[in-house]
Every structure is written in C-alpha cells, then in structure tokens.
Amino acid sequence: MKKILGLVAAAVICLLLGSCGSGKNIAYFQNADTIDLSASKGLYDAKIMPKDLLTITVSTTDPKASMPFNLSVTNTLNNLGTLSTSAGSLQTYLVDNDGYINFPIVGRIEVGGLTKRQCENRIKEKILPYMSETENPIITVKMASFKVAVAGEVKSPGIFTVDQEKISILEALARAGDLTIYGKRENVLLIREDSTGQKSIHRINLNDANIINSPYYYLQQNDYIYVEPNKVQAQNSAIGSSVTIWFSVLGTMTSLASLVVTVLR
Fold it and tell me: CA-to-CA distance for 96 and 220, rounded, in angstroms?
C-alpha cells in the first residue's frame, strides 16, 4: 500500500516539476533589453490586394461635379414618386484577380499593390479630365474588408475587422484575449496569401523580441494566425474518457485497499 501511495506522490511531483520547467517559455520578449530596434523604424501602409472591397468617395466644391463618381447602393422613391439617392451608403468596389476596379465614367483602374494614398492619387489623375480646371477633387479610399483570423490556443478565437488598416500580430492576439497558458509562444503559425494567390507559412517566436523587426510583425489583410497547443495540453487532450474512468477506478481501489489495511490492523 505504501508503495502505491509513493508512486502516486512521485507522479504528482513530476507533473509539478514539468510545469515549473516550462514556465520559462511563458514571458514574451525575453531579450527585449538586448536587441536593436532601428530596423523597425518606419510607418506601415497596407497594400490593396485582389478581392479587397474598397469604399471610394470623391469630394468637390461643386457637388454636381462629384455626383457621377459617388454611386450609392440603392435608390428609393420619395414622396413625389421620383427616384432619390440614399446619401449614407456608398457602393463598394471589388478588386478583381488582376488588381483592377471598375470606376464610374473612367472605367477600369489598376489599384492592386498600391497603398491607400497611391490609390487616391491614381483615381484623381483619372477623373481630373472630366472636371473643370478650377476643381481640385479630394479622393478618400478605405479598405472595407481588412480582416485577420486568430485560432487555436487563445481565449477568444475569431475573425477580426481592422478599421485602421494596420494591426500587429500582438494586437491581433490581444483582440483574441491573448494566448492561454497552454499556447506555444515560441512557435506561432502565420499563414499568408500574396497577390498572386501563393500561400506561405511562417513560424513566429513571441519569446524573442526580434519579432518587432520581422516583416511579419504587421499583418496583411486575410492573414491567419494559429496558436499550437503545448505538450501539456496535447497530452491532456489525448487522455480519452476510458482512461479517465480507469483513473477513477484505480483511485477507488486504492481507497478500498487503504480501508482494508486499516481494518486488518
């Protein structure tokens, strides 16, 4: 009986030691005080990709000049029985696989691979010939479909819309409630698709502060982040219900054996 109890105690101690040993992989940026961050200098601008949805607004001093370029989603009948345009819901433009949008009056415009500012300048160049020389139109482009997905060992997995068109991997994980204690911080998986449809896989170590200098620190639209479970969680999930029952039976038998030994004494 003492031998059985000793084995159980030894198993518990091993589990505790294993937990303590893995604690060194919990903290982020463990070498933050020793790295050079000069390579991370610069402001990030997302680039337009195929299948992005864009909202584009053209503003002019004369509202009639910009009206043909600001298409609305729906038209409604007013009290006089004539069609009126809804002012609050502008049409979105889908970037096709070749990187083009179909814009009113001017037709196809190539916007794939451009930043928002570059896209605004290109559209302005295209519509200027259709306006008077006194007009200086203001173009506003916004990505309406900038999303990233986070799954795996995080507290709140999901798909997150990014309004500011800029998000780091740390911000995305924070939106997902951060990693659980079982997430592998040294081996986070990032799946990315480029403008040609080519997928690539990248491994990211959150324990290493050099991630800030990485080209994968800022996420692109439609990036997918997966946090793998560590060995403890994998082992826990591998224990089926039958194994759990056997542990319960073993515990009951141990208690009965202890009771018998006590009575026989």
Answer: 18
